[in-house]
Amino acid sequence: MQSVAKTLFPMSSEKIFRVALRGDGLLHSPRWNKGTSFTEKERKAFVLTGRLPSRVNTLDEQCERAYAQLQSRNAPIRKNSFLRSLKEQNWVLYYSLLSRHIKELTPIVYTPTEGDAIANYSHLFRRSEGMYLTFSHQETMEEDFLEQTRGRDIDLIVCTDSEAILGIGDQGVGGIGITTAKSALYTLLAGINPFKALSVVLDVGTNNQGLLDDPLYVGWQNPRIRGEAYDKFIDKFVQLVRKYHPHCLLHFEDFGVTNAQRLLECYRDEHSVFNDDIQGTGAVTLAALMAAVGVTKSKLADQRYVIYGAGSAGLGITRQVRDAIMSTDGISREDANKKFYLMDRYGLIKASLGDKTRPSLSEFVRPDDEWEDVPTNDKGEVELLEVVKKIRPTVLIGCSTHSGAFTENVVKTMAAGCDRPIIFPLSNPSRLVEVDPKHANDWTKGKALLATGSPFPPAKMLGGQEYVIAECNNALIYPGLGFGSVLCQSRRMRDSMIIAGAQRLASLSPALKDPDNALLPDFNDAPEVNFEVAIAVAEQAFDDGIAGVSWKKEDTREKAKERQWQPVYGTYEYDEGGAQ
Ligand SMILES: NC(=O)C1=CN([C@@H]2O[C@H](COP(=O)(O)OP(=O)(O)OC[C@H]3O[C@@H](n4cnc5c(N)ncnc54)[C@H](O)[C@@H]3O)[C@@H](O)[C@H]2O)C=CC1
Ligand SMILES: CC(=O)C(=O)O
Ligand SMILES: [Mg+2]
């Protein structure tokens, strides 16, 4: 994969840009600023000579300096704020630095550290980034939207209403941080032009009492709006997106469980919309499972699945895997549904729970008579250990935010029932993981096939060799899914495109060559992996007849390379009518 990386990120660009900004205006524009890398000629043309120290640096030198400055900060959250401020100053330098240290710095700008930054958003606040659309100001929504998008050809909008940020719940206006992080990864890992991307927080209030009581909270200090008023507000925003940017991908992130699936269903036939927690997580987990069943030399249809946490991610995974079982193993929907045992805060989801379960789970509700002989807790719920004892799952997936839910007893009981238990504790950030993968590895004597949502260090196998824990995070696939659909202008994100992306990702699993290797590619390879996913997605859109471009399917790879934004400096010429 190394050679592909070089093609993706060449160190210099011959591109010439006509730029209308000069002096401080240019130095304060993160899009155009080069800092000490402006050449002598550019310094004269753009009245920068007295505004910069005389030495001209290369991008390599700038990266070296920025990296050293970053290393002088010990705490991840301080590194996070340093990088945020670098992004506000100079996009090329920021993305170039990240692309040289992907595995080290992604956890700083994304999960887990971004979770802490979001939780402390109002206290760490220095400068706004992205678009804030507030329920109480909805009469100016169109103006506010146009103010930041006029003259911009937007490819991608990432939005959140902040109700279920990572695993840390309702974060009010701080949720803007997940949209900027997800958007940054689109650029870093798939080459989406940051000028063509927009991050939006839909501030509909918050039910987080800490934020409602905090005098420094910078969002709308009002309980969360629900019902018709909420739907109208969201719809007003979606219709603006459709009106002004009909080709762009609208990515929904970290919406609450009662809205996520509903909004996806509501808009997916009208526009290219994508819910990452449902579809991105479903796709990356499907890819990891395909790799795992490759190791155990079995089929997806042969497994018994326990999904612990039946929210957006849990249901997204269940549906994605169910659909794959139906299409690859030729099994009916009804029979495929029976392979899944979903659990939530009320224990196993079974018929007698009635209204406690959401209607969207109805296909997966277990019949009561199946569980008549099984002990329940004092609330009448069937707990995880009992489910594991009865059905002897081969796959256990956690997306519950319930830290430590996969206890030693649960894991050992599961391991007693199958040769290679497949255990994916996917909750983020790291502290919420259902089981530390090191423990799951030890308790199963190295037999477990593991993947987590945030990065974890390798575990030791019985023979003493390292077992690399796959990072089953949607960031390994969503940037490619999005870039693929933007590239071919599909105007819809079809299930077939997502499955094509998941299959491509699964085909890149290191475990295919060596069963003791990680189930998913290393995160250092995330740019190349997402590139491959994007190609698969765009090619599938051609096959489905929904690609909206004039070039041919055979040209997809070449067009993708041309389209990718690269973190390298071009050459600037001053032009009054140029870009700003
Ligand atoms: N690895 C990855 O790529 C991804 C990981 N996630 C993680 O998965 C977790 C859930 O995310 P979403 O599904 O988006 O949230 P969500 O809020 O839609 O779903 C969480 C579900 O877990 C249930 N739950 C809460 N406490 C529980 C308990 N003690 N026992 C069983 N179930 C419980 C909730 O009732 C809810 O149904 C989060 O930690 C999130 O960070 C989410 C998306 C992607
Ligand atoms: C990764 C992600 O989307 C989440 O944890 O919500
Ligand atoms: Mg998410």
Summarize the structure.
This protein has about 575 residues and is α/β, with parallel strands linked by helices. Helix content is about 45%, strand content about 10%. The protein has helices spanning about 1-10, 25, 40-45, 60-70, 75-90, 90-100, 100-110, 115-120, 120-125, 140-150, 175-190, 210-215, 225-245, 255-265, 275-295, 310-330, 335, 385-390, 410-415, 435-445, 480-490, 495-505, 525-545, 555-565, and strands at about 15-20, 130-135, 155-160, 195-205, 250, 275, 305-310, 340-345, 345-350, 395-400, 420-425, 450, 460, 465, 470, 570-575.
Radius of gyration: 24 Å
**Please, what is the average pLDDT?**
95
Beta-strand content bin? 5-15%
Molecular shape: globular
Distance between the termini: 36 Å
Helix content: 40-55%
Q: What is the oligomer described by this structure? A: single chain
What strand line-up does the widest sheet have? Answer: 9-8-7-10-11-12-15
Please count the helical segments: 24
Low-confidence stretches: 1-12
Q: Pairing-aware structural class of the strands and helices? A: alpha/beta
Specify the biggest β-sheet.
7 strands, mixed
Based on DSSP secondary structure assignment, what is the total number of beta strands? 16
Bound molecules: 1,4-dihydronicotinamide adenine dinucleotide, pyruvic acid, magnesium ion
